[in-house]
Amino acid sequence: MEAKIPFSPISHQLCRSSSRFWNTATNLPFCSPVSYPYLIGSSSQLRARHPLISFAVTKVSLLHDLGATGAVLGGAYALVLSFESLTKRNVISQRFSRKLVHILSGLLFVLSWPIFSPSKEARYFAALVPLVNCVRLVVNGLSVSPNSTLIKSVTREGRPEELLRGPLFYVLALLVSAVFFWRDSPIGMISLAMMCGGDGIADIMGRKFGSQKIPYNPRKSLAGSISMFIFGFIISIGLLYYYSSLGYLHMNWETTFTKVAIVSMVATLVESLPITDQIDDNVSVPLATIMAAYVSFGY
C-alpha cells in the first residue's frame, strides 16, 4: 500500500515559499503531493532515502572542511614565507617580522572560521591547522629535523629549544580556542584577540615608546600595557561584531563593551606582572582572559 511521504523540513520550507503559485488546473498548491507524484511512496522507501540524504550531506561537509583546512594551512604557510622574504631582503627586522607573525597568524586563523562548514565536526578540521604547526614545532624544537629558517622566524635567540616554549604555547592556545569555544562563544575570540593583538602590539609599542617602566615590573612599560588594553579591546570588539554580523553570536551591545573592557583590563594586569620567567605570556594571557571572559559572559 502506498502512503504519502511527509515533507522533510527543507521540502516544507520550499513549499511554503512557493505557496503563492497555484496549479490552475486543480486549484492545488504548487508543491502538493497531487501535483508532484514523486512525493508519493511507501514508508519503507522514505526510510531508505533518509540515510542516503544524510550520507550525501556528510560527504559534502567533509569535502568542504578538508578544502577549508587546506586553504587555511596554505595561507598560514604563505604568511610566514612572506615575512621571511621581507626579512631576508632587509625590508623589516627579524624581531619586527616575528612580532607581526605573532599578531597576524592567530587573528587570521580566527577570521577564517566562517569558511568551515556548519557541521559539528568543523571545529576539529580547523584545529588541524594549529595541530600541524604544533607537530612541526615539536619536531624542530627537539632537533629531530631542525629547520633553521623556522627557528629564526619565531624565536628570539635562535635556539631550537625556544620553539617548545612561547611558539608552542601560542599554537596550543589557537587549538584550544577552536576546539572548546569555536564560533558560538566570545571567550575564545577574546582570548586570542588579547594574546595575538593586544600582547603582540604591546611588545612593539613598548619597545618604541616604553621609556617609563611599570614600578612593580621594570621589564614592562606603561606604554606597552596601555597599548595592550586599547588594542586588545578594539580587536575583541571587532571580532565579536564580525561574528555577530554573520549570525554566529547574539550580543547585548549595551553590556558587551563594559564586559570586554573588564576582560581586557584583567588580561593587561596579568601580562604586566613580573612572572614571565615562571609562566610564558602565551599561557598567562589567554588563560586569564578565558577565566575573566567566562565570568563575564558565562559561555
TrEMBL record:
GO terms for molecular function: phytol kinase activity. The chain crosses the membrane at residues 60-80, 100-116, 163-181, 226-244. The keyword Iron-sulfur does not apply. Keywords: Chloroplast, Kinase, Membrane, Plastid, Transferase, Transit peptide, Transmembrane, Transmembrane helix. GO terms for biological process: vitamin E biosynthetic process. It is found in: Plastid, Chloroplast membrane. The keyword Transmembrane helix applies. It is a multi-pass membrane protein. GO terms for cellular component: chloroplast; chloroplast membrane. It comes from the Eukaryota. Belongs to the polyprenol kinase family. PANTHER family: GENOME ASSEMBLY, CHROMOSOME: A10, PHYTOL KINASE 1, CHLOROPLASTIC. This is Phytol kinase 1, chloroplastic. It comes from Brassica campestris (Field mustard).
